[in-house]
């Protein structure tokens, strides 16, 4: 006990000696200033944004105020804006813009004429299959089918399941089909979204709320490869999440697993991948530290899940890995559905529960929605459903095989 009391008494004596010549108001002022400075330093150091990033931001802001640099930036921005305006003017110089509602509504022929004029403004033949990263398929037979499907479902809204139970059934079928493609068990579940960005946003929201409510994590972090899609940065801004970016190998572009292990704290981050990272190793990290692992498969999900059947086995990167707790995959990319659909999938319902938003004290009654949108386009769900059924397993396997053959052909020159 004396060993504990001695340093405490020594500290008290030193403090009292230091302040013995001070007046009371000076003691109060020094104490208050010390507390204020300590709180300020703590908040300054432990912000979501690192000191390095904040220092860079301040430095660049100050640099932009230097007249010569400010002038250079303004000139560059002006040049870009003028170039953009010239490009738009070149494409639309012979067309009129409709800025006000017409007095009398247009007839179908006139509407279609203007529509075709607008669609023909591009200089690129995007239907020919040369618009990589923008258009993934143009199957005229499928377009004929989905056009008819959308015509029948364009005014439906799954927000009202009592009015449109068939749309909810189709959505549930899509989720189950895709869960099975990624080897989810009977407990796996998910939601349809408007695109990959929303799927990623929903996964981040689910894990943020799960960490806060179940694990008591007040300041959640995401540990991510530097190659992640910018949707994760958007999610961090929307949801106030701290991002720990981990470098990737300059040759393989796989995330540095050792650096990722060192970056793990007691928060509940997601582990996404842009390129084909070592998902098995990341999954093992998730299990070891009891944190969720998200696999961002928005771009290639509808290739990776058919690669084995196509004769090109790849490392496992789905729910067969026990540490993987969620996956995002876009049906409107290599699922070949029309634009506007994606899925976020979860291993267990406990994660999806925290994705939802529910308002119980709204004057209009209880209001809940599974994703960002309240009302959703039932037509998008229907055409996605139709696209999956149109291609079937063999259709997707063949498309995957053709893509790999084409890739190998290009690599060989």
From TrEMBL:
<dbReference type="Pfam" id="PF00282">
    <property type="entry name" value="Pyridoxal_deC"/>
</dbReference>
<dbReference type="GO" id="GO:0008117">
    <property type="term" value="F:sphinganine-1-phosphate aldolase activity"/>
</dbReference>
<keyword id="KW-0746">Sphingolipid metabolism</keyword>
<dbReference type="GO" id="GO:0019752">
    <property type="term" value="P:carboxylic acid metabolic process"/>
</dbReference>
<dbReference type="InterPro" id="IPR015424">
    <property type="entry name" value="PyrdxlP-dep_Trfase"/>
</dbReference>
<keyword id="KW-0663">Pyridoxal phosphate</keyword>
<dbReference type="InterPro" id="IPR015421">
    <property type="entry name" value="PyrdxlP-dep_Trfase_major"/>
</dbReference>
<dbReference type="InterPro" id="IPR050477">
    <property type="entry name" value="GrpII_AminoAcid_Decarb"/>
</dbReference>
<protein>
    <recommendedName>
        <fullName>sphinganine-1-phosphate aldolase</fullName>
        <ecNumber>4.1.2.27</ecNumber>
    </recommendedName>
</protein>
<keyword id="KW-0256">Endoplasmic reticulum</keyword>
<dbReference type="GO" id="GO:0005789">
    <property type="term" value="C:endoplasmic reticulum membrane"/>
</dbReference>
<comment type="pathway">
    <text>Lipid metabolism; sphingolipid metabolism.</text>
</comment>
<dbReference type="InterPro" id="IPR002129">
    <property type="entry name" value="PyrdxlP-dep_de-COase"/>
</dbReference>
<dbReference type="GO" id="GO:0030170">
    <property type="term" value="F:pyridoxal phosphate binding"/>
</dbReference>
<comment type="similarity">
    <text>Belongs to the group II decarboxylase family. Sphingosine-1-phosphate lyase subfamily.</text>
</comment>
<keyword id="KW-0443">Lipid metabolism</keyword>
<keyword id="KW-0812">Transmembrane</keyword>
<comment type="pathway">
    <text>Sphingolipid metabolism.</text>
</comment>
<keyword id="KW-0456">Lyase</keyword>
<keyword id="KW-1133">Transmembrane helix</keyword>
<dbReference type="GO" id="GO:0030149">
    <property type="term" value="P:sphingolipid catabolic process"/>
</dbReference>
<keyword id="KW-0472">Membrane</keyword>
<dbReference type="InterPro" id="IPR015422">
    <property type="entry name" value="PyrdxlP-dep_Trfase_small"/>
</dbReference>
<feature type="modified residue" description="N6-(pyridoxal phosphate)lysine">
    <location>
        <position position="333"/>
    </location>
</feature>
């Amino acid at each position: 006990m004396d060993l504990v009391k001695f340093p405490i008494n020594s500290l008290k004596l030193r403090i009292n000696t230091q302040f013995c010549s001070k007046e009371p108001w000076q003691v109060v002022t020094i104490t208050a200033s010390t507390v204020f400075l300590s709180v300020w330093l703590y908040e300054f150091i432990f912000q979501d944004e690192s000191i390095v990033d904040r220092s860079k931001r301040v430095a660049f802001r100050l640099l932009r105020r230097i007249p010569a640099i400010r002038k250079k930036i303004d000139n560059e921005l002006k040049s870009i804006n003028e170039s953009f305006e010239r490009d738009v003017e070149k494409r639309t110089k012979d067309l009129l813009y409709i800025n006000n509602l017409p007095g009398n509504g247009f007839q179908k022929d006139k509407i279609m004429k203007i529509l075709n004029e607008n669609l023909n403004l591009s200089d690129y033949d995007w239907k020919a299959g040369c618009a990589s990263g923008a258009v993934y398929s143009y199957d005229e037979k499928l377009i004929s089918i989905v056009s008819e499907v959308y015509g029948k479902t364009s005014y439906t809204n799954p927000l009202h399941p009592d009015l449109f139970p068939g749309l909810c059934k189709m959505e549930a079928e899509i989720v189950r089909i895709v869960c099975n493609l990624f080897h989810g068990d009977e407990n796996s579940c998910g939601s349809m979204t408007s695109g990959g960005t929303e799927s990623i946003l929903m996964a981040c929201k689910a894990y943020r709320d799960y960490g806060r409510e179940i694990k008591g994590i007040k300041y959640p972090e995401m540990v991510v490869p530097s190659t992640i899609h910018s949707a994760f940065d958007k999610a961090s801004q929307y949801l106030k999440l701290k991002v720990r970016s981990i470098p990737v190998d300059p040759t393989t572009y796989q995330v540095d697993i050792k650096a990722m292990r060192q970056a793990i704290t007691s928060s509940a981050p997601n582990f996404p991948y842009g390129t084909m990272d070592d998902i098995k190793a990341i999954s093992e990290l998730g299990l070891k530290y009891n944190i969720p692992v998200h696999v961002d498969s928005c771009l290639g999900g509808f290739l990776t899940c058919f690669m084995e059947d196509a004769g090109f086995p790849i490392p496992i990167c789905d729910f067969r890995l026990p540490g993987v707790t969620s996956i995002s995959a876009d049906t409107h990319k290599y699922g070949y559905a029309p634009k506007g659909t994606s899925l976020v999938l979860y291993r267990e319902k406990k994660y999806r529960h925290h994705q939802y938003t529910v308002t119980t004290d709204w004057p209009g009654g209880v209001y809940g929605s599974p994703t960002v949108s309240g009302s959703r386009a039932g037509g998008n769900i229907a055409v996605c459903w139709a696209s999956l059924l149109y291609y079937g397993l063999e259709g997707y396997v063949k498309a995957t095989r053709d893509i790999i053959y084409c890739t190998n052909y290009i690599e060989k020159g």
